[in-house]
Design a protein that fits this description.
Length: 257
């Protein structure tokens, strides 16, 4: 009898304190109440917008954390449900570096985005093509990573422009975040060969020079559920939502194909 009363008292205290078998460390909040999504800054705009729409329609909260990997990888190892990449090679590289996090079989592809040229507002150097990037006095910022590894070289190679563009690369950095900081701090930088989508995030400080369709280069946007996610059903539900036509239109608004 005493044992039954004692167990009942513990159960009552657990309820009063906000704990249950489904509860996590935060009072009253279940571990799998939120779908945790991590990835680079490039696709943040459309993924965050789609996440907000998904939450409104389903009531399932999606939390998107984006930026250079080193800023979120430790937390992602603990609670990530979904990881996305800024290109196919980028997510593959992530899988090689962190084989315990992602399941290759859970990987899926979203939409492709095209490379273009970002220039200063008003395009003072009158840059209209890849060829114009080889002109004397043009200063280019290059992102040698973050889904853009080799991007300018792939664009320039078929047109014989590698030497001319290489000569005009004023600085090379590892991430888009670094390139954005440089772009805003150094007005002497004239051009950035990157994804068209970045213009929609930087419309106040850039103009976009689109390349002719025959010169365009596209890279994908892959996404994957993590191996240790305790929220796989809701994570899959969100990925399925990302693949709807409604979500595709959001990505197109942000510069995806």
């Amino acid at each position: 009898m005493k044992k039954i009363i004692f167990v009942g008292w513990i159960s009552l205290m657990a309820v009063l304190l906000g704990f249950s078998p489904e509860m996590g460390t935060k009072r009253g909040q279940a571990v799998n109440d939120v779908v945790k999504v991590y990835g680079p800054g490039g696709p943040l705009g459309p993924i965050k917008e789609v996440a907000e729409q998904f939450t409104k329609e389903t009531g399932i909260k999606v939390e998107v954390t984006a930026g250079p990997e080193e800023k979120w990888i430790d937390q992602a190892k603990r609670d990530a449900d979904i990881i996305y990449g800024g290109s196919e090679y980028m997510l593959t590289e992530f899988m090689h570096d962190h084989p315990e996090i992602l399941d290759e079989k859970k990987r899926t592809d979203l939409y492709a985005r095209s490379a273009g040229i970002l220039v200063r507002k008003g395009n003072p150097k009158n840059i209209q093509s890849l060829e114009d990037l080889t002109k004397e006095g043009v200063k280019i910022v290059d992102v040698n990573g973050a889904g853009q590894l080799g991007l300018w070289e792939d664009l320039a190679g078929g047109k014989g422009l590698i030497p001319g563009i290489s000569r005009n690369i004023d600085i090379s950095v590892k991430s888009s975040a670094e390139a954005i900081d440089l772009w805003k701090a150094n007005p002497k930088l004239d051009a950035w060969i990157t994804y068209e989508s970045w213009h929609y995030r930087l419309a106040d400080v850039t103009d976009l020079v689109q390349l002719p369709e025959e010169d365009k280069l596209y890279r994908g946007t892959p996404v994957s559920i993590t191996s240790k996610s305790e929220n796989k059903k809701k994570a899959k539900q969100f990925i399925d939502y990302l693949k709807t036509e409604e979500s595709h239109q959001v990505f197109q608004k942000w510069g995806w194909k």
